[in-house]
Amino acid sequence: MPALDDILQQKLSVFEAKRQKRALKATGRGAGVKVRRDGRELVSFSCNDYLGLTHHLQVIAAAKEALEKYGAGAGASRLVTGNYPLYDELEAALAAYKGAEATCIFGSGYLANIGTIPALVGAGDLILADKFIHACIYDGARLSGATVMRFAHNNLEHCRMLLEANRGEHHYCLILTETVFSMDGDRAPLEALKILAKEFDSWLMVDDAHGFPSTRKGEGIIEMGTLSKAVGSYGGYVCGSKTLVEYLKTAARSLIYSTALPPATVAASIAALKMMAKEPELLAKPLQHARHFTALLGMKPAQSAIVPVILKDNDKVLAASALLEEKGFLVAAIRPPTVPEHTARLRFAFSALHEAAQIEAVANIVKEIMQIL
Ligand SMILES: *Cc1c(COP(=O)(O)O)cnc(C)c1O
Questions:
Q1: 236 C-alpha vs ligand 1 centroid, how far in Å?
Q2: What CATH architecture is 21-54+280-372?
Q3: 98-113 pLDDT, tens per residue?
Q4: Predicted TM-score (pTM) above 0.70
Q5: Are the CB atoms for 206 and 221 separated by under 8 Å?
Q6: What Å distances lie between residue 72 and 57, 65, 82, 344, CA to CA?
Q7: 303-326 tens-digit pLDDT
Q8: Which atom of ligand 1 sits closest to the CA of residue 134?
């Protein structure tokens, strides 16, 4: 048998041939939307810190205070001794912000999904998931052992068809979607899905990673999300009924068997939520900026702070991203398997801190790129 490294090298060359090999690049972020990469300063349209809260002075001050008071780490799982007092404060603040009865904080959004879904359904149950859900929702679904079927993106008819054909043979049924889709920026038809779920005696769970901060928890919907995007810190959450949260604290393995978040991180989230609650104008800005961009390019008005410019071809997208970088803009090239084949795209994420001139400049370059590529 060949050596492990030889086998891995072979696998890497397959990725390389498909232009799917990934590499990490050292990227320094300061306050604002600029980042430093390879010694150059770039205006970033690829950070998920939609409100610029990662560097907010009050957020940093709260994190420092918690670091000094509680130390650098939690020391154990929340279920053992890691549940320092800031957790209660964050869970109460988040439940209030979301209009939910209760919330449970997890180590990350990824951990929230892979812990919650298998706690709710298992073998003999059915999961119906939107085709475009985030990889970690899908991982949670697979880990559960339930039968997983995917319906065409935002396609209620297809979802209904799958329910009609399969609901009867399964015990419980969970429908999975996102409020705002991470790579497309469009929104799920939540009200219609809720009605469908009710009709077929199913539960509806939504991932609000990119809808936060503008969405409140929908009645009768299980919601999860992350504190690593608009909230600017780190950690995941699930919100729902008191019973759901109590159950997850007993049954979600990714909560039980993983160390609690560092105290500074939890303190940063609490401070960020306070800012968000008192600055509605700040919350509205990312979408306004995204709409400015779509208007400049003659595209359909943005539905969220995320705007994809789909160029289809992997090589084209890499070339476009490199051109943008040459001109001082960082815009991620998103390729399969993160998105379906032949839908490679530039993904723009707008921050409250972008300036109109930066948006206009990047839109002009995109227009030029579309003509030459
Ligand atoms: C980023 C993201 C996650 C994962 O959240 P983390 O806190 O970064 O682990 C989950 N779902 C969606 C839709 C995301 O975009």
A1: 8
A2: Alpha-Beta Complex (3.90)
A3: 999 999 999 999 999 9
A4: yes
A5: yes
A6: 19, 11, 12, 40
A7: 999 999 999 999 999 999 999 999
A8: 13
